[in-house]
UniProtKB/TrEMBL annotation:
Pfam short name (any one): PcfJ
Native species: Veillonella magna
InterPro entries membership: PcfJ (IPR025586)
Protein name: PcfJ domain-containing protein
Length: 547
């Protein structure tokens, strides 16, 4: 076995930090400073800011070497470790080539917080991805305690198995996660672009050469551009492209949208039989058409562009109507594409289940036209599927069996089932920072899920379905009420950098956007500025209120 590329990164992060506990007005954190290789416990007093408490310790001095550090300094890479997680301090990346395989190998020394709440050195972790050209498989492997390599899982370009390569901690990968995922946008990977690029170039060239030798024809679209700013790791996109080509050498490029459609499902979206056929020489499109019993030039063109269409056509029952399934998927995909980023708002599995029921109740053309035209904005469509996804299995079936006679009543019908499924009232943390009186309007931070349900009924929106997320601390909702106590607007706040910072939804009654009412738009923007929040949604017209 020959080493064809090698690169060593001496420091993956400058600072590794883990929250330990909060006692007597002090926030205690374990801190590892790579510059001097020492670890210590820092006690920081939370600071009051804009109606709430926030963690301090943004700037501190290492007690061992005296260097001034800042966890928010762009020049200081910081990793916030999870409980019991091993974090790499350095990274050795190499590519080795054998007779019928190529290995991408990662080796790191790691640290973790011990019982005394400081980071201590742990044993080196060794992992690799093997591209096996004889069996046409990509395999994730790790070294056990005897330093022998053991196979953990075959990897597909999307779905659950590839998630292992983007998760920093997963039960299947023990307490460290995939080492390559640590070379992300918050690490020092950006300072090692040239070295990592050389490793990737050697890997890609060797991969392409071996794959073409295996299949006996030229293979296109093997390259996918990497980026050191990718939060899932520098190698994420290139690895997806190569694994995809290993399984389906003649398939078209794996686009971001197709990749997302595939990733929302499990690894069986394209059954293993498809890839067994391609290994025996069948073209990828023919293999998919044979597996799903599809015929015709229209389907062939559609699958060349997006192979995930076959799965959804079968689930919904549109196998003989490629044009309808394409129209439907294009609209449903708008739910996931917000701006230019792909966001996992809704599992497509739920979309197909509900859409299939609508087709049975209302007919295929009416259903597609309704989804295309009748929903007022992409978020309204997402809300329908979000409510359906949140139902128990029992009430999902009830909702499907009892769809309303008029399609336009689906939103309210699902809201009723959501309320029946909800159970008892749940508490919600009050965010005092958001509470305010702006002219004749009051901004309220609800303290229980009943308030969200009541606001949803009065405004005919589905904010009631956000109860569990708000109770769990995953979402924050602010209600805007008039002098009579009637809710007139509803705002959703999301976290950025661990703090509630971004306004991501701003709705009036019937899901109309706040921007459609100039007076309310101005009030909401005044509140956003007074709370130093970021308007990160098209529901608000920022320009209309800029002074």
């Amino acid at each position: 076995m020959e080493t064809i590329a090698h690169y060593y990164i001496p420091a993956v992060y400058d600072v590794i930090r883990r929250y330990v506990e909060y006692t007597y007005g002090k926030e205690k954190s374990a801190i590892y400073h790579h510059g001097c290789g020492e670890s210590f416990v820092g006690n920081f007093t939370p600071q009051y800011n804009l109606g709430g408490y926030m963690g301090s310790g943004r700037f501190f001095y290492c007690p061992f070497c005296g260097e001034e550090l800042s966890i928010y300094d762009d020049n200081v890479s910081t990793y916030f470790a999870k409980k019991d997680q091993l974090v790499p301090t350095d990274m050795d990346v190499s590519v080795k080539e054998g007779a019928d395989f190529i290995d991408l190998i990662f080796v790191s020394n790691t640290v973790a917080v011990d019982k005394t709440n400081v980071f201590t050195d742990r044993a080196a972790v060794r992992q690799k991805i093997r591209f096996d050209f004889k069996s046409r498989k990509a395999i994730f492997m790790r070294s056990n305690s005897t330093r022998k390599w053991e196979a953990i899982s075959e990897i597909f370009p999307a779905g659950k198995t590839f998630h292992l390569l983007t998760a920093l901690k997963d039960n299947a990968l023990d307490s460290v996660g995939f080492l390559g995922a640590f070379l992300n946008g918050s690490s020092r990977a950006s300072k090692h672009r040239d070295g990592l690029r050389n490793v990737l170039t050697a890997l890609r060239n060797a991969f392409k050469r071996k794959l073409e030798k295996t299949v006996c024809y030229k293979v296109r679209d093997v390259f996918a551009p990497p980026t050191a700013c990718n939060e899932k790791g520098y190698f994420e996109q290139p690895l997806r492209a190569m694994i995809w080509k290993l399984l389906a050498p003649d398939a078209s490029r794996l686009t971001q949208l197709t990749l997302y459609r595939l990733s929302t499902m499990n690894d069986n979206l394209l059954p293993a039989d498809v890839f067994e056929r391609t290994k025996k020489g069948t073209s990828f499109v023919d293999a998919v058409m044979n597996e799903f019993n599809l015929t015709g030039r229209v389907w062939r063109r559609a699958l060349t562009k997006d192979p995930s269409m076959a799965y959804f056509a079968k689930r919904i029952g549109f196998t003989d109507k490629p044009s309808l399934i394409m129209r439907l998927l294009d609209k449903i995909s708008d739910v996931f594409v917000l701006g230019r980023s792909i966001t996992p708002l809704v599992d497509l599995e739920e979309c197909t289940m509900l859409t299939k029921a609508m087709v049975k109740q209302y007919g295929d053309n009416r259903t597609v036209e309704f989804i295309e035209r009748r929903f007022d904005g992409d978020q309204a469509l997402a809300d329908v599927f979000l409510m359906f996804r949140g139902l128990s299995r029992f009430n999902k079936q009830n909702a499907i069996r009892n769809l309303p006679r008029r399609m336009r009543d689906i939103h309210d019908a699902l809201l009723v089932w959501q309320q029946r499924d909800r159970g008892g009232d749940l508490p919600i943390q009050v965010h005092k920072r958001f509470v305010a009186k702006m002219g004749e309007y009051r901004f309220i931070s609800p303290d229980n899920t009943n308030q969200l349900i009541d606001a949803g009924k009065r405004m005919h929106i589905c904010v009631g379905s956000y109860g569990r997320s708000c109770s769990d601390g995953d979402k924050a909702v602010v209600l805007v009420a008039n002098n009579n106590g009637e809710p007139v607007a509803c705002l959703e706040i999301a976290k950025q950098g661990g703090r509630w910072k971004k306004v991501v939804q701003a709705k009036l009654a019937y899901n109309k956007v706040v921007a459609s009412n100039d007076a309310m738009n101005a009030v909401v923007m005044d509140w956003i500025r007074s709370r130093k929040l970021i308007p990160a949604t098209r529901d608000i017209d920022i320009e209309a209120t800029v002074v």
